[in-house]
């Protein structure tokens, strides 16, 4: 038998060799080790942390945890109001778990819609994470929290993962109340010292912002990575145009997870993932017990866990969860009522609770992180601005990243994108060391300002004490036929543009990268289907940092219009235009509102998400300001493009491409069969000057 055992061990060692690299990645994520990324990566990485190589680097932290150093419990925690139980993973350093209340530590609270942890199939579960359940997105961060001595509580929100109940809507009020109940439960545990930091990325970050607005006394810090602050403007209707493809694919993805069918997501996911981690009911678990249960009790608990999850999935199958695409694509304005209940898109946005958010921020600073190639950049700025008004220790970091921060997007001078070298977890731990562990900060606000942003084109980190950066001013470039010029003309010109409803930018755009995040962001040259306006060669470097604004006068043949505008850098060295940023707008929302007569809450929640920059048009996107048909006469339309930071080099030209559709990503204004003809007439110069306003930062 010993010979057979040795042979089996040798066979297992041979089989496991191809997966050693995968196991290493889970311990120390570095996607540059993967061959796919090696052949596409550029070795000249420039987005490393601004403190790297300085006299005061980020805190040293261990990358690995020894086997058995973390105690994990998966339990169902009942909510106070209705008894519905939420599945929670409780991760404790062994010394804390075994101290029976003698050691109390701060807690990092994470709530997610995408399952708190997953069980892998055999034999993969033994090759990755030592057989423990895995959180594909957040495992590196959770490991860092545990190494630092914090407790981690990760929860499936109501109706998702292994939690009971129904997912009524994205970021519902019930979900927000559940967060308060979970915080109450955490501070009552024997290992908790009463201090909690909120943490999340993407959906989870928006949940953290809404939880912060509860003003719970235990919350002392919040880390929001790529957060959604205004759900309407950011992820549902950018510029009032329905983001059809993302909402459709995202809803299908959620449906597969809610059915615990990971094979429906992809064949590879089904091959590796068995399902969501099951949870014990508190009275049936070993949580809080010092003695180790025998094998029979363990088998009984496993059987009860399986039956409990089957019952939860059966109820969920009989009462399907909220479908975002089915609901939102039938709406048009931010105050339209949902077909699932008496709520609006504004109701589920964190910006609705801005006054409570600011009240909580007095004692809980915010670390807000996003990327210039992500749709959440404006929301990260807005949430930071709301927090920084009352707490100078809040921080903002915006890098050259896509959604999730996996890529350093490199579009200048034709360079290839690569994997980020930025130590994001180190930045998070530095923030928590000060505000959760309550240690003395290693740098003062004078030594390290609150805002750090990466300037694309120049490839360097820049700092500012606030947003927008000091020295920002507007540079007007007026549109003339084929030209961008610094002065307008007295003669009025009309440019007629036939809309191609099948038009889309070519490449892996920022919108597609939110779904296909492993593929590098890429914009190919904008072809003849767009209107092009080009400036004279620049006589010096020009840094554009902030939100560009397009002011344009137009008339539509069918009294409807969508505008898609792309800011480009025309580099004569490579004879092609380089993508800088973009914006879109449904002209039915062109009316600007000062919200006269509205309450303070309505005024704040409608204007604050627009970014705290002067001159950004205050569109309310409400039904009362919606225009069903544009007037059959010239109409002035003003809207902002996504914020960016980009340096145009001397000799390059600023270019603007304008289209009337993005067929791949967005819903059209009308879609009858056959597709109607639409001609847009743009008025340039004379009494209807159209212009592009660039937020230029001039260095002292």
Automatic annotation (TrEMBL):
Superkingdom, taxonomy of origin: Eukaryota
Which keywords does this Swiss-Prot/TrEMBL entry list? Hydrolase
Q: Name one GO molecular function term.
A: dipeptidyl-peptidase activity
Q: Which InterPro entries match?
A: AB_hydrolase_fold, CocE/Ser_esterase, Galactose-bd-like_sf, Xaa-Pro-like_dom, Xaa-Pro_dipept_C
Q: Pfam families under this entry?
A: Peptidase_S15, PepX_C
Residues of the Xaa-Pro dipeptidyl-peptidase C-terminal domain? 429-693
Official protein name in the record: Xaa-Pro dipeptidyl-peptidase C-terminal domain-containing protein
């Amino acid at each position: 038998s010993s010979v057979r055992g040795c042979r089996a061990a040798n066979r297992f060692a041979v089989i496991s060799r191809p997966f050693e690299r995968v196991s290493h990645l889970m311990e120390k994520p570095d996607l540059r080790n993967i061959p796919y990324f090696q052949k596409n990566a550029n070795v000249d990485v420039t987005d490393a942390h601004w403190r790297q190589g300085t006299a005061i680097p980020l805190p040293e932290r261990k990358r690995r945890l020894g086997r058995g150093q973390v105690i994990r419990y998966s339990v169902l925690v009942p909510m106070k109001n209705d008894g519905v139980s939420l599945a929670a993973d409780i991760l404790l350093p062994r010394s804390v778990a075994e101290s029976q209340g003698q050691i109390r530590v701060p807690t990092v609270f994470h709530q997610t819609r995408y399952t708190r942890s997953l069980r892998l199939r055999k034999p993969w579960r033994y090759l990755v994470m030592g057989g423990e359940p895995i959180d594909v997105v957040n495992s590196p961060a959770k490991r860092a929290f545990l190494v630092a001595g914090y407790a981690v509580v990760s929860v499936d929100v109501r109706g998702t993962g292994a939690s009971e109940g129904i997912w009524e809507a994205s970021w519902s009020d019930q979900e927000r109340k559940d967060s308060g109940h979970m915080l109450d439960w955490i501070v009552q545990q024997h290992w908790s010292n009463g201090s909690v930091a909120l943490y999340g990325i993407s959906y989870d970050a928006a949940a953290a912002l809404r939880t912060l607005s509860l003003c719970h006394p235990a919350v002392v810090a919040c880390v929001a990575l790529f957060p959604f602050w205004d759900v309407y403007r950011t992820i549902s209707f950018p510029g009032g145009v329905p983001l059809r493809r993302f909402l459709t694919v995202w809803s299908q993805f959620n449906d597969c997870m809610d059915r615990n069918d990971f094979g429906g997501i992809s064949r590879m996911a089904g091959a590796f993932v068995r399902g969501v981690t099951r949870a014990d009911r508190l009275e049936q678990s070993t949580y809080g017990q010092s003695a180790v249960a025998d094998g029979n009790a363990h088998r009984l608990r496993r059987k009860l866990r399986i039956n409990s999850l089957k019952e939860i999935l059966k109820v969920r199958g009989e009462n399907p969860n909220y479908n975002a695409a089915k609901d939102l694509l039938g709406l048009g304005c931010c105050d339209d009522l949902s077909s699932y209940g008496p709520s609006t898109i504004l109701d589920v946005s964190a910006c609705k609770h801005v006054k409570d958010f600011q009240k909580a921020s007095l004692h809980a600073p915010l670390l807000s992180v996003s990327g210039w190639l992500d749709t959440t950049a404006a929301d990260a700025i807005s949430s930071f601005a709301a927090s920084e008004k009352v707490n100078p220790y809040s921080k903002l970091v915006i890098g050259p990243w896509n959604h999730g921060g996996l890529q350093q997007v490199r579009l200048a001078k034709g360079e290839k994108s690569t994997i980020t070298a930025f130590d994001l977890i180190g930045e998070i731990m530095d923030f928590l060391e000060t505000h959760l562990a309550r240690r003395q900060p290693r740098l003062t606000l004078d030594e390290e300002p609150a805002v750090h942003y990466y300037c694309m084109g120049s490839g360097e980190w820049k700092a500012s004490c606030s947003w927008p950066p000091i020295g920002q001013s507007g540079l007007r470039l007026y549109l003339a036929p084929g030209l961008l010029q610094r002065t307008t003309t007295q003669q009025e010109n009309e440019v007629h543009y036939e809309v191609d409803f099948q038009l889309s930018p070519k490449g892996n755009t920022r919108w597609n990268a939110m779904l296909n995040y492993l593929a590098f962001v890429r914009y190919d040259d904008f072809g003849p289907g767009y209107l092009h306006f080009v400036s004279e060669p620049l006589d010096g470097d020009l840094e554009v940092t902030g939100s560009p604004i397009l002011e344009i006068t137009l008339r539509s043949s069918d009294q409807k219009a969508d505008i898609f505008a792309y800011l480009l850098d025309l580099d004569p060295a490579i004879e092609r235009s380089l993508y800088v940023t973009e914006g879109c707008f449904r002209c039915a929302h062109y009316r600007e509102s000062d919200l006269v007569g509205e309450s303070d809450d309505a005024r704040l929640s409608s204007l604050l998400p627009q970014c705290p920059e002067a001159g950004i048009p205050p569109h309310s996107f409400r039904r009362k300001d919606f225009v069903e048909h544009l007037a059959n006469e010239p109409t002035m339309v003003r809207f902002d493009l996504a914020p960016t930071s980009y340096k145009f080099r001397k000799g390059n030209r600023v270019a603007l491409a304008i289209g009337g559709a993005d067929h791949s990503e967005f819903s059209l204004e009308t879609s009858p069969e056959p597709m109607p003809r639409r001609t847009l007439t743009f008025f340039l110069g004379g009494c209807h000057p159209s212009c592009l306003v660039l937020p230029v930062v001039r260095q002292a």
